[in-house]
Each structure stands twice: as structure tokens, then as C-alpha cells.
Write a structure and sequence with these properties.
The complex is a heterodimer of chains A (214) and B (475).
Chain A (H helix, E strand, L loop, with lengths): L1 H20 L3 H21 L6 H29 L11 H19 L6 H4 L3 H18 L3 H19 L8 H29 L14
Chain B lengths: L3 H15 L7 H19 L15 H27 L6 H19 L3 H19 L5 H35 L7 H6 L6 H19 L7 H8 L2 H28 L3 H23 L5 H22 L2 H31 L10 H4 L1 H14 L6 H15 L3 H26 L14 H19 L3 H14 L4
Classes of the chains: A mainly alpha (214), B mainly alpha (475).
Chain lengths: 214, 475
């Protein structure tokens, strides 16, 4: 099962780069949904045997990360009526390059991490770190509020991957609680997106600059 | 029985959403607060056994914060009755429900025995705070809520990664992996050091964002500036204390693992940096609520410095946790009165408040003296204790910088407060007047701050000492 797990993790990394390299927001939502779907399969593969706990986490992850959250984001996107990210702080090509560099560094760095023998052979930890980095990149370089929400989601996906090495230590309630918190956070952000759009006639975060020191 | 501490505010939140009467709804908050405080007192004095389950219990710092949160919530609840009566044109169902839910989340965070449960509770507190900041529904409050949500969510996400790193430290150490705080402290010597260190850094950054330690404080002036004053009081006294509690609990694990020196040096650095940044931004500040936000950044720095010094410093920090929380209640609520009375929070519009609104302005002025460390108030004793710990602990540079920053903050805040209270501006411009509901809770909080500065009751003093021994575990 190890090779299948690693192939899926490589797919997750490729999706990170895809999300970083495109400016069409609807495409990024689809990419993040697909990433959520791939992630949901991982708990079933990470431990050699399939227990009830990993099944519950998988089902919850598919339902929330691959279905409910993308649907909420598509609804928000329809409400705010924008199609693509314009003028990101750094070009999509450059952010893709940075994402790739981050993944390479994470892979190299993971060799030096003190991992247990079992985890040392899989891509879980480097993939988690690379995904967290990709999320940070999306968060900091995109200017549309909805793109920043997507960056936050990718960041959370990275943390979810890291959670795979921990199924024994982190109880089910906490995993599910973290997933539910994520849904509520996206829900609240989605509502707020609509309000931002109504008040400012755009969801460009550069419009959100009234509050500062003079 | 003690679990009713969590259930009562949760039911209160549900009731607030179902109850139709906009005028009487705020009284739900008072009912919740009174029951919560009664239970808290019963638990703290041992009349009711504290919860003792796998996930919830009550550790020594939890006792301190539970009392603080409960008292602050009662003060804010009484204030809310007066405030929401004035703003009767607005539907307050979501606001009241969110306040009650915030108390639920804070109580779970205080009672948690498990790092994961703690994390879920802090995240929940962050989410239910969003409608509180957004209460005024204008451009500025949207901007503040958005920044708060995004920065706060990323912050707690980092805290979750840190929690996972600590869990991995346990997995790698080969011990029975567990995120229960007492298990972690017992097995601490076997934890993998690099993962524990990295985990502490992430936890410090993550929960430090919620606390508002610089440089993760950027959301704070915006959120505190736009939120109604009573929400600000709960954020600055309650939410920040819960986040600090999370850091303390992980610090204890680090201490038990023999990594205390490393963790303390990080806390000391962030603490001094927070005080410096706050001091710089307080000079010439014209917005009263943003001034209070930077003051909160400063005091989070003081807490970090206090625990980093250990021993006497920890005693001072734990006392300061109470003193700062209660004084912030005085300041935010009285500033909210002035804001309502003058319809402005800027010193350019408000002056001569001592004549215009004598009660609130006097309370605000006394609160200012208290928070900047003037005797005979609580923060004076706690700040002096921390300074003493620095000089006694052979860290004269830390002590000197600490005193210097306190002085800068005093001067910076002083300018703003003096302009506001004295001067010959016109009187209040709205129909808001000081009433019993909106001043009595402030008097009560101020009396407690005064008590902390003059005579610390014996049980409290014992609890503070218990906190010091709790934190200072050695491998």
C-alpha cells in the first residue's frame, strides 16, 4: 500500500502547483476540492489496515472537504460575481515556481528530520510541509478575499496530511472537531464575503485598508 | 454537576436564538452569568467537585482563569442590558447568542485536559467572536472582522500544527502517544526534543496570534477598535487569557522535558518585542479603543516576560493575568460609555469628558492609572513583582528594558487620556447618559482591581503559589 500512498501524495503536491499556477478562481476551487477528495483516501492507506476510525475520518473528509466546502465556495463565488484573480502580488508562474521550490526544500529537509523508521520511508511529512507552504503562498500573494480563503484551506489540508502520522495520538473527536471548525470558519467567511462585496462593490482586499495608524 | 459550567452558557446561546423578545433577551445573559459565577464559586471553593474526566478537569491556572472569565462575563452581561437597551433598533439575537457561546468556548478551553480539546475550544471562541466584532455592520467593522477571521484562523491552524508536532514528539519518543496534558508532562523526558521545540514554537506563534503578542498582533487594534466595548472587555480579558493558558500548559510540558530555558528565551524575546511595539504605537494615538488594543499587546508582553523569568516572575505574571483582565474590563466598558456619549472615539472630538460625563470619565481615568501601574491598584503589585524578579534573577537588562517600556507606555497613553478627560470640549452629543447598568459593573471591577493591589486574600495567594509550583516542574 505504501507505493499507492506515495503516488497519491505526489498527486497532492501536483495539485498544489496547479492551484498556485492558475488565476481562474473556479478552477482553484475545483483543484482544492479534488485535493480534498485525494486526502480523504489517505487515512485508509496510511496504516496498513483499515479501522473504523480511519473510515469515519475518510467519510467526513470527503463530505466536508470535497463536497460541502467547495459548494459553499461556489455559492460565494456566484454571489460576488468575479471570475479570476487579477494582478496577484507575484505572477502565477512565479508562485508556481516558488511552490515547486518549497516542495523540493521540504523533501530535502525531511531527510534531516528525526522520523520514526516507519514514517521515514513515506512522503507524508514532506508532503504535509510542502502543502502548508503552498497554502501560505496562496494566502499571502493573492488579493481577492476568496482566494485567501482557498489558501487557508490548502494550509489546513497540509495539517490534515501531517495528522496521518498521528492517528494513535489524536482522538477521533479532535480530528472531526478540526474538520467541523474548518467548515464553520469557511461558512462565516462566505457570509462575510457577500457583505464585503455589498459594501465595497469588490472583494479586492486592497479595498480593506481604512483601519490603520495614520 | 460541574459540567453545567459548560452546559448553561450553551443552553443560553440556544435560548437567545429562539427567544423572540428583543428587549428582554439581554437578561438571558445576566441569568447565564449569575448561574455560571455561582457554579464557579462553588467549584473553586470545593463545594462541588471539579470535573475530572479524560478530557476536562481543572488545573491551577485553570482555576484562576475560570474565576476571571466568570466575573468579567457577569460585568459584561449587566452592561449589555444597558447597552442593548440603548441600541434597541438592532436585532441582538445573534449578538447575545454569540456572547453566550463565547462563554461556553472559553469555559471548555479553561477546563480542558487535552491539547486537542483545548485547540477546538479556542478555535470555537475565535469563530463565535466574529459576529461580536461585526455588530455595527458598517464598512469598518467588516474590514476588522475579515482581518480578525483570516489572521485568527491561520493562527489557530498553526497552533494545530504545533499540537500535532508535540503529538509526534510523543510518538517518536516511543511512549504511549497521548495529547493529555498530564500524560505529556509525565512522559516529557522521553519526548523527541527537536519535535517538541518545533511544536512549542508553532504553539507560541499560533496561540500568540490569539493572545496578540507582537508581531502577530496586527488584527488586534482593528478588531478591538470596531467591536462594541463589552465584547472588547471579554476579548482583552477572557480570550487572551485562554490563549495564554494554552501556551502555559505547553510551557509546562517543555519545563518537564528540560527544555524550559529554550522556551523561556522565546517568551522573553516576544514579550519585550510586544512591549516595545505597543509603546511605539501608543505615542500620539488618537483613537481611544485602538489605544486600549495596543495596551493589551503590551500587557500580553508583560505576561510572557513574567513567566519567562520563572519563580517570583511567574507569581507576578499569574497575578497580572487577573489584574490586567479586570482592569481591561474597567477600561473597555468606560471607554464604550464615552464613545456612546460623544459618538466618537477620537481625542480630536472628545475632550473635557470629566465635566461632560463625570462618572464614566472618572472610572476611565482610574482605569488608566491602574493599567499603567500606579499604586494602589493590582497591576502595580504584579508589575513590581515581575521587575523585582528580573533584577533578583540577574537579568538587569530585561528589568531595565521592562521599566523603560512601562514608562514609555505611561507617557504615550497619558497624552491620549489627558486630552480625553481634561480640556474644554463640548458635552456629550447623544442621548446616552451614564446609568446604573452601564456604570455599576465598572465600579465592581475597579473594586476588585483595588483589592488585588492592596490586600490579596489568603486563598488567592495560596492559589498563586500553587500555580508557580505547578508550572515549575523539573525532569
Amino acid at each position: 500500500m505504501g507505493s499507492l500512498l506515495d503516488s497519491l501524495l505526489v498527486l497532492v503536491l501536483v495539485l498544489n502547483l496547479y492551484a498556485l499556477g492558475t488565476s481562474r478562481i473556479a478552477v482553484v476551487i475545483r483543484v482544492v476540492a479534488l485535493q480534498g477528495f485525494v486526502l480523504a483516501a489517505l487515512p485508509l492507506l496510511a496504516h496498513g489496515e483499515i479501522g473504523a476510525e480511519s473510515v469515519i475520518i475518510s467519510v467526513a473528509a470527503v463530505a466536508l472537504k470535497a463536497v460541502i466546502i467547495p459548494m459553499m465556495l461556489f455559492r460565494a463565488l456566484r454571489d460576488v460575481q468575479i471570475r479570476r484573480e487579477v494582478e496577484p502580488l507575484i505572477s502565477t508562474g512565479a508562485s508556481m515556481l516558488l511552490g515547486g521550490l518549497g516542495a523540493a526544500l521540504a523533501l530535502a529537509f525531511a531527510k534531516n528530520l528525526p522520523l520514526t523508521a516507519h514514517d521515514g520511508h513515506s512522503l507524508i511529512v514532506p508532503a504535509a510541509l510542502a502543502t502548508v507552504l503552498a497554502g501560505f503562498l496562496l494566502l499571502t500573494t493573492r488579493l481577492k478575499a476568496i482566494s485567501q480563503v482557498l489558501g487557508y484551506l490548502v494550509l489546513e489540508n497540509g495539517i490534515f496530511i501531517f495528522g496521518l502520522v498521528l492517528v494513535d495520538a489524536v482522538p477521533l473527536v479532535v480530528e472531526i472537531g478540526a474538520l467541523l471548525d474548518l467548515v464553520v470558519a469557511i461558512f462565516v467567511m462566505g457570509i462575510l464575503l457577500g457583505h464585503i462585496r455589498r459594501e465595497f462593490s469588490s472583494i479586492d482586499t486592497r479595498a480593506l485598508s481604512a483601519l490603520k495608524e495614520d | 454537576m460541574a459540567l453545567a459550567l459548560v452546559l448553561i452558557p450553551a443552553l443560553g446561546a440556544a435560548a437567545a436564538l429562539l427567544y423572540r423578545d428583543n428587549h428582554r433577551r439581554p437578561w438571558l445573559l445576566v441569568a447565564v452569568a449569575v448561574l455560571h459565577l455561582a457554579l464557579t464559586v462553588a467549584v473553586l471553593f470545593g463545594a462541588i467537585p471539579a470535573p475530572d474526566t479524560a478530557w476536562l478537569w481543572l488545573d491551577p491556572p485553570g482555576r484562576l482563569v475560570l474565576g476571571l472569565v466568570s466575573v468579567l462575563f457577569l460585568a459584561s452581561a449587566i452592561y449589555a442590558v444597558g447597552y442593548l437597551r440603548y441600541r434597541a433598533e438592532r436585532n441582538n439575537a445573534v449578538f447575545v447568542a454569540a456572547l453566550s457561546a463565547l462563554l461556553t468556548a472559553l469555559t471548555i478551553a479553561v477546563l480542558s485536559r487535552h491539547l486537542g480539546v483545548m485547540w477546538v475550544a479556542v478555535e470555537l471562541a475565535a469563530l463565535v467572536s466574529a459576529p461580536l466584532i461585526y455588530f455595527n455592520r458598517n464598512k469598518r467593522s467588516i474590514e476588522a472582522t475579515w482581518k480578525y477571521l483570516l489572521v485568527g484562523s491561520v493562527g489557530v491552524a498553526i497552533a494545530l500544527l504545533g499540537t500535532f508536532f508535540i503529538a509526534y514528539a510523543a510518538v517518536h519518543g516511543g511512549a504511549e502517544p497521548s495529547l493529555r496534558l498530564d500524560d505529556l508532562a509525565t512522559t516529557a523526558p522521553t519526548l523527541s526534543r527537536p519535535w517538541l521545540r518545533a511544536g512549542f514554537v508553532l504553539v507560541l506563534v499560533g496561540y500568540g496570534t490569539k493572545m496578540g503578542l507582537a508581531p502577530m498582533h496586527t488584527w488586534k487594534p482593528d478588531a478591538y477598535g470596531e467591536a462594541p466595548g463589552l465584547a472588547g472587555a471579554l476579548f482583552a480579558g477572557g480570550v487572551t487569557s485562554a490563549a495564554f493558558l494554552a501556551i502555559l500548559r505547553v510551557l509546562r510540558v517543555c519545563n518537564a522535558a528540560g527544555e524550559g530555558a529554550y522556551a523561556s528565551s522565546l517568551l522573553l524575546g516576544l514579550g519585550l518585542f510586544s512591549m516595545a511595539i505597543a509603546g511605539a504605537l501608543l505615542i500620539g494615538q488618537r483613537d481611544v479603543k485602538r489605544m486600549l488594543a495596543y495596551s493589551s499587546v503590551e500587557h500580553m508582553g508583560i505576561l510572557a516576560i513574567g513567566v519567562s523569568l520563572g519563580g517570583v516572575g511567574t507569581f507576578g505574571a499569574m497575578l497580572h493575568l487577573l489584574a490586567n483582565g479586570l482592569t481591561k474590563g474597567v477600561l473597555f466598558l468606560s471607554a464604550a460609555n464615552l464613545h456612546r456619549g460623544y459618538q466618537s472615539r477620537f481625542t480630536t472630538d472628545v475632550s473635557g469628558a470629566l465635566r461632560g460625563m463625570p462618572v464614566s470619565a472618572t472610572l476611565f481615568l482610574l482605569g488608566f492609572f491602574a493599567i499603567t501601574g500606579a499604586p494602589p491598584f493590582g497591576p502595580f503589585v504584579s508589575e513590581l513583582t515581575i521587575a523585582r524578579a528580573a533584577f533578583l534573577g540577574d537579568q538587569p537588562l530585561t528589568g531595565a528594558l521592562f521599566l523603560l517600556f512601562l514608562l514609555v507606555v505611561f507617557i504615550g497613553m497619558g497624552q491620549t487620556v489627558l486630552k480625553l478627560c481634561f480640556g474644554d470640549g463640548p458635552g456629550p452629543t447623544t442621548t446616552w447618559r451614564d446609568r446604573v447598568a452601564t456604570t455599576a459593573p465598572i465600579f465592581a471591577l475597579l473594586a476588585l482591581v483595588l483589592m488585588l493591589g492592596t490586600l490579596i486574600p489568603e486563598p488567592l495567594s495560596a492559589l498563586l503559589h500553587e500555580n508557580v509550583t505547578w508550572l515549575e516542574v523539573h525532569p
